């Protein structure tokens, strides 16, 4: 590996950080190593407001269905709201800005009332009880957070579906979870224009969603929407009459808190199930360790609540930590590429957390834009979602952070619940593009499938070799798939361990460098997409015989979607542009615009092994314009590779 620069934590960060030396970091790592359960026991006792204490820290008897803090009782909304009322009832819990520039500040006391009223509404009007599933299909407005917390208050399991997903994708998720209620909004604002959500819900529910009894609609943009009298309910009207107090449901540590659907390498998206105590503990702890959140800070994570980052690092983590969390409705480039920097100046943001794709976009559209604003309030910058290239890292570090703010490159996943590998801002010397080291208590290791640790510069499987409190508990309704997907690849000491799906390498100093997915998952602008899902969508076009989808490196998006399509007919593709448009329309309908293909090549056949497996590796090389190094002689029809190269590379 070539030499890369290393940046030590600056004194201003060291001074304020909870963990402010590598010695302290290694000390914590050792503590966890020598007494794993004791390490977590101490933290859980110290950090969580238990209604009843747990009797066992970790139950491994049904591994890999691990249970944490067994027998403990709590309600995560007490952890996130009630317990703060004594000391910070008038502190801003959520600061929200709409894309048009409208603003709301919600104090902890107000949040308490909003969530309690909402919880009462769910109970009294819709009969939602502990364990019921509620789908939340919302834009980035405070009510999205209220809705999640209201579910948590009464023990209902929320499943937030990203507002960019299509009606079909929404329907799949509603059906899989057998949701009883859908909470949505009329619509919101994006790129200066209204965009609508309620009409998408209408289409989703038009077919095979018998489980859904009602739709609750929050008014945001007041655009006209169709109303189904016996199904649709007006939130803004109903909420007014709700009592402002709702006793929290007392939950077991291991009761499910939420489902969040994410793409895997095969089949339909899976409903990743998280539980109460372990999740909230880690959400709060990582806010303290990784973002070094302080009482006077204003913290901003730009994610959407439809993704795990929005769950853990806009809603649950910051609120559990008693922080002020910002929420922004729109896109980063409206009305111009200075929008976010202007907001950092205006709200004096202290921690700013975003995705590499956004950094690359803002770099491209406004390299000097940050200079126009006073960004001196910033202490810590964060990135998440995909590997960050050193160029983008350096721009973020120098232009946005003025060389004064450590960048925490946080590696984690929907399944991990919270950060796994990340620098500690006051301790870790950082290198552009490396997520550095596992957090204390997290046993992330790069190994081979038998559990042997890889030597520096050798790529291996990125695994977590011990269970951790905020880990995925199962895949909703499909425990076998849970075991197979995550515990079916790697073993250590003969025991199956969690494999993330990512590859990674150590450098000579033990720093971890994530190389990206080793499976058929692609990462477009930080969005996880399964090639299988996109291929299934493309297959719905009547002229498509078969297809294969691969990721291709992209300057801004990280990866773009490249499809190789074989048509049923030999009519040729005289109407290529039209056909590409149609195929992308099918994808938009089945999944959403985020999964559209950037490039489609119509090819006479796909490179397959004699057993019929598509060699995606070859297609990836062709898409990239690389020379084919793989042995093609084992293919059923090696000549097809030449033909595809001709078509793609001309
Ligand atoms: C939190 C989140 C998870 C996948 C993960 C990996 C990629 C996330 C990363 C990163 C390199 C980082 N990923 N953070 N790759 N460096 N700092 O993104 O969850 O949507 O489930 O995606 O994203 O490939 O496996 P999720």
TrEMBL record:
Give the species this sequence originates from: Nitratiruptor tergarcus DSM 16512
PANTHER family named in the record: ACETYL-COENZYME A SYNTHETASE, ACETYL-COENZYME A SYNTHETASE 1
Q: Which GO terms describe its molecular function?
A: acetate-CoA ligase activity; AMP binding; ATP binding; metal ion binding
Q: Which branch of life, at top level?
A: Bacteria
**Keyword Metal-binding recorded:** yes
| One Gene Ontology biological process | acetyl-CoA biosynthetic process from acetate
Q: Which family does it belong to?
A: Belongs to the ATP-dependent AMP-binding enzyme family.
Reactions mediated catalytically? acetate + ATP + CoA = acetyl-CoA + AMP + diphosphate
**Binding annotation for ATP:** 385-387, 409-414, 502, 517, 528
Give the Gene3D superfamilies listed for this entry: 3.30.300.30, N-terminal domain of ligase-like (3.40.50.12780)
Provide the Gene Ontology terms for cellular component: cytosol
Which InterPro entries does this chain map to? Ac_CoA_lig, ACAS_N, AMP-bd_C, AMP-bd_C_sf, AMP-binding_CS, AMP-dep_synth/lig_dom, ANL_N_sf
Q: What class of enzyme is it?
A: ligase
Q: Which residues bind Mg(2+)?
A: 541, 544
Q: What is its EC number?
A: 6.2.1.1
Output this protein's name. Answer: Acetyl-coenzyme A synthetase
On this chain, the residues bearing N6-acetyllysine are 613
Q: Which cofactor does it need?
A: Mg(2+)
